[in-house]
Structures are given as structure tokens and as C-alpha cells.
Give the backbone structure.
Amino acid sequence: MKKLFYLLLFCFPITAFSQWTKQNPLPTGNAMQSVFFANETTGYTVGTNGTILKTTDSGITWNAQSSGTTKDLESVFFTDVNTGYCTGSFRTILKTINGGSVWTVLSSGENYLRSVYFTDANTGYAVGNGATIIKTTDAGATWTTLTIPIPSYYYLQSVYFTDASTGYAVGSAGTILKTINAGTDWSVQSIGSTSKLYCVYFPNANTGYVVGEDEQGHGIIYKTTDAGVHWVALSSGTDQILWAVFFTDANNGYAMGAGGTILKTNNGGTSWNLQSSGVTYDLYAVCFTDANNGYSVGLNGTILKTTNGGGLGLNEISGKSNFMNIYPNPASNIINIETSAISTKSQLSIINLTSQVLITRQINEPTTSIDISNLPSGVYFVRMTSGKSVEVGKFIRY
């Protein structure tokens, strides 16, 4: 009976572990800079040279829309399924009221507008170069420049509001700005460095994350649990620049970055696991419509999708690892893991079939022993991340 049990486990269909798959938009060499879904099926991505693509079937097909501009578009946001805004270079602001069939140019000028966010149908904010924050209260018809306490040569990269009054903007020189009165006043918060911050996201009113790169060009993640009063650096497990962050709930989040980097946490950022994107292009934005369905976009027209929250991928399981030996296998109490690539930043994770990380360890020896006696019987994966390398093995707990 045990032999049959082992056979069934090893023959369990691993197609369920597919992580991120490349979508098939119209041919484009443009960099896709932002992605937003108005509902579970209807989404938009925007990029360089005025590119706007739309899907109405959850990313299966993407169709080009006429933006009316050749300016680079950096950010897209919809307040409902029909009404949306784009911002980009030369202070470009576009608006549609019919789901993108027609886009109207609302504004153009000098400063680069890198991010747009609306708190309701009428009230929105855009941030960008020249220490710029602008606000509209009439659905984009007019925009007012807000006064902020940073030098004019700073740039702001991302804006996010947790409610109608409370918002954050991040950018160069480690800048984090906060308002608690809908942009009338902004206070400066600090992460204690002059890092470049590219994205800010809050899954709830108190807990937030920023990502970017430090002074040496290494990826960074900071977290606050007190609405920005204090920010703490997290260990991401990668040196790649991180461009975007998104959380589906308080625990589960994703960070996207250079070279096709995708990181996932299921414990509020305490640990991050490298996922396989299947691409080497920089990924600039990420958006999820629910806990499982998510999208990421980047260089060379890249659009990726996951339907299982980025669970283990075949290319991580199929033998791209340099070397990993797990014994005894099957096992009931202790497994020994031998691996070839070890550094001071190596992290070992044990993951079940539903992509839950059950055990994590920092590893600095080529052989380590793990107690698995508390795990239920079943198939598990061992993943070792060390810098940019990933090694994956499989074992049975009986």
C-alpha cells in the first residue's frame, strides 16, 4: 500500500504549479510601465510611445487603443469600468470615459508625471519630476499644484492613498511624503538612507511597503506597521533593483524587478521567495484582481499572468538547479539536504503542493538537516535561493 501511495504522489499532476506565463499581446517593442484592472476581466497596460493595450478576457487577448499621443505613458488608473486616466512624459494626462475607445489629452507641459491615483470619481493625484504633486477635484478638468517640503530637483515616482485623506508619495533620495488632510499638507518621513524609491503600497491603513534600490544599486524593501512613523528594512534575498510592489492581503505580497525578478511573501515580508518569471526583461508593474490572478508588465512588451498566486513553476522543478541531494527520501522524521551553491545569504524553504512556505532556514553549510516530523504526509519541495541562483528538489514525507 505504501508503494502505491508513493507512486500516486509522484504522479500528481504538476501543471498546477505553473507560475507566470507570458501573454500574447500585439507585437510591440515598447516598455510597458503600468498595469491596472478595472474588474476581474477588464484591464489596461500602458507604456512608451503612447502605447495603451486593453483586455476584456482576463489577459487572453490584448488589443491596442489609440491614445492620441506618442508621449511615454507611465501610469494608468481607472475609477470605474469606463473612466480612466493615464499620465506620462511632458506632463501628459489622458482621460477616457468610454473604456478607452477614445482618450482625450487633458494636459501637457514640462514635468514627467510618473504615477496617478484617484480616491474617488472626482479626486485624484499625480506625482513626478520637479518635486511635483498635482491634484484634481473635478475628475481631471483642472489640476492644482500642491506645495511639498522637498527640493525642486527631487523626483517622485509613486503615489498611494489608504483613504480619502491619508496618502503617501515616494521618490528620489529616500523621500517618503505623507498627508493626512488630502494633500493640503505633506510631512517628510525617513527610511534613513538616500535610496531611490520606486513604488509604495499599503494593504491596510497602518501597514505599508516601499521598494527601490540603494546607493549601490541593490534592491531594497522597507516596511511600516505604524502608518509610516517608522520604516524597517526587510531582507529580500535578491540584489536586483525592485520596481513594483503589490499585496493581495496583509500577508501575501509580490515585488517585481530587474531581470525578470519576482519575489513573493506569505508572511507580511518576513521572508521573500524567488519565483520563476520565465523572462529576463525588467518588470515594472504588478496588479492582482484576487488572491490567485495577477499580472506583471515590463520591457519589450512583456505581459505575464499567474492564475495560482505564482505557485511553484515547472522550470524551477525540472532540473535547472546546479545540484541538490535530499536523503533519506521518502522520510518520516529528518531529511538531509546537500546543495552546491551556498552563500551567507542562502535561504532554504520547504513548500507544499499549494505553494505554502512551511519551513524557512538561513543556510551557510553545504549539508543541513531539517526536522519534518510535524509535516503531514505528502509531497514537498525544497527551494534554495542564493543570490540570483535557485535550486529546487522534491521529497516525500510518509
